[in-house]
Every structure is written in C-alpha cells, then in structure tokens.
Amino acid sequence: MKAKVYIDGSEGTTGLRINERFQGRDDIELLRIDPEKRKDPAERKKLINASDVTFLCLPDAASIEAVGLVENENVVIIDASTAHRTQEGWAYGFPELGADKRSAILNGKRIAVPGCHASGFIALVYPLVKEGLLPADYPVSAFSLTGYSGGGKKMIAQYEDSDRGKEFDAPREYALSQKHKHLKEMKYITGLKREPLFSPIVADYYNGMLVSVPLYTDSFGKGPEEIRDFFASFYDGEEFVRVMPFGAEAETAGLLSGNACAGWDGMRIFVTGNEERILLNAQFDNLGKGASGAAIECMNLVIGADPAKGLNLDL
C-alpha cells in the first residue's frame, strides 16, 4: 500500500527539492494542492489530514499554524523549519546520533529536520560531549561555508542577478550579531552549556557546505588520529556518515571545498591538525543531508522503506 504524502510549502527551495526526489518512486502517492489554494487553510487542512506523512517546508509561524491543523492522530509531521527543533515531544531528525534518536523518529509522529549549519556542527560536537570527551562548558567556536541556495529564493535571486553588485563575487560573513537561528538547536542537541561562537559564510556557488570546529587537544587528552578513530567507531555502520581516513585531505592537496559533496545526500567527516590543535570538519550538501535529503531519510524510516531510497549516496 502506498504511503500518502503531502508537501505543505512545495514552492520553496526545500519543498521543490523534496518533490524532485519523489520522481519515479512507486511506494508513495503524492497529494497535490491546487496552486490557487496553496495558502488556503481549509484546503491545506484537508490534505494534511488525508496524508500519512506531511512535510512542512514553511516559515516558522506557518509551520506552527500547520501543526495546529492536524486532527488525524496518525499523521506524521516532518518539519523542515526552525520552529520545533528544540520542542519537547519532537524527534530530532538525525538518526545517526544514536539508537535513542532513531527510535524517536521511528515511533513518534512529530519530527524536526535539523538546520543545515546545525547538522554539521552537531555531527561533530554531539558525540564528543555525549561520551564525555569534551566538557559541556568548553567555549566552542565554529565556522561554516555554504552555497547561496541556503538563503532561499531571495538570496538565490540576488546571486543569479546579472546586474548584481561586486560584493557577491567574494565570500561574505553574516549573522554578525551572533544570533543565528541555528544556535539554539546547536546548544540544545549537543548538551553544551552555552551557545557556540558561530561564523557562517556564504559564497558564490549554489550548494554544498563545510562546517569546521577547532579544538585544543588538551581538552580531551587525545591526538587527532585517536579522535578520528573515535568518530569512526561512533558512526560505524552508518551509510549516511563517512568518517574519512586520517590524512585523506592530502588527496585534495590539503584543501577542503565547500561544494565537494554537492548533489550527495551523505556527510563526510575529516579530522585534521596536530598534537596541540585539531580541526573537525563536516562536508555535505546544505540541500542534502542539511535539508531535503535528511527529511526524506526520516520519511523512509517512518514508512519502513530503505533509508536511502530516492537519495544519492554514490560519491
């Protein structure tokens, strides 16, 4: 029996990408809304409650409103907005973090898809805090390089405007007020006692992301190779997260690119550095494991399909 799926907000960047990934799937029935009624609460309510799974690809306020339209207790909501990522009763959509996270996705009706920057940060910091290697009060900082698709339709239009200003030709740091919307979940999910110092940077390429977390090794008394092996053990058997061999960055002349995983739905982790300082790096697609790919992975788990079905894990 096909799972009935509705995408509320199918015209946004994430919604369009999810819709594209459903092409050719024979195990779901996609419920479509009349374009003229896509903002009609009554029509949206009807489709949400007729579905087995509804994706919310909406601004936060609209996602909260959509959840309020649910009357069918069997509907699974997968929310791609920021609205519910730290809310009690919502599973965090990153099953690779552990059996408890996977179980919550499998058994719950409310799933919050991680933010793109947050996905990389949490993949790197959560295991260290969970296993007691990194103190929860460590003053963590992070940098994140992203393609401009992460800014949605408005930013995409700015970058692809033939008359754009020269400032779009170079990488640009943003969220300078240290109030980025992902900070709340970065603290909450990892168990840190305070929000990290976070510097996101947007550059002139469409999609792909590189999140970097620098650490002093004396925080946990282990060198970079040992930390790499720790991550390899933590993510052992997870097809969506690949911990690269120590020194693997030599294959790209010691350089890591923000768009190297564009179009891929997994995440690569690199550990580099020396005996005093190390750099943890998560390389992935902000539209893949950082958005629509993660949402579909969660849906696949919920409906009992292969977690990788409809996704690209060939790299």
Radius of gyration: 19 Å
Give the mean pLDDT. Answer: 95
Shape: globular
Through-space gap between termini: 32 Å
Number of strands: 13
What proportion of the residues form beta strands (DSSP E)? 15-25%
Order of helices and strands: EHEHEHEEHEHEHEHEEHEEEH
Discrete helix count: 9
Main beta sheet: 7 strands, mixed
Q: Which segments are poorly predicted (pLDDT under 50) over 5 or more consecutive residues?
A: none
Global structural class: alpha/beta
Helix content: 25-40%
Strand numbers in spatial order across the main sheet = 8-9-7-10-13-12-11
Which helices and strands occur, and which strands form pairs?
Layout: E1 3-8, H1 13-21, E2 28-31, H2 41-50, E3 53-56, H3 60-67, E4 76-79, E5 91-92, H4 99-107, E6 110-112, H5 116-130, E7 141-147, H6 152-159, E8 172-173, H7 183-190, E9 197-203, E10 209-216, H8 224-234, E11 241-243, E12 267-273, E13 277-284, H9 288-303
Parallel strand pairs: 1-2, 1-3, 3-4, 4-6, 5-6, 7-9, 11-12
Antiparallel strand pairs: 7-10, 8-9, 10-13, 12-13
Helix pairs in contact: 1-9, 5-7
Could you characterize what this model shows?
- This protein is of the alpha/beta class.
- It contains nine helices and 13 strands.
- Helix 1 packs across helix 9 and helix 5 (116-130) runs parallel beside helix 7.
- The mean pLDDT is 95.
Any key phrases for this structure?
single chain, 315 residues, alpha/beta, six-stranded parallel β-sheet, globular
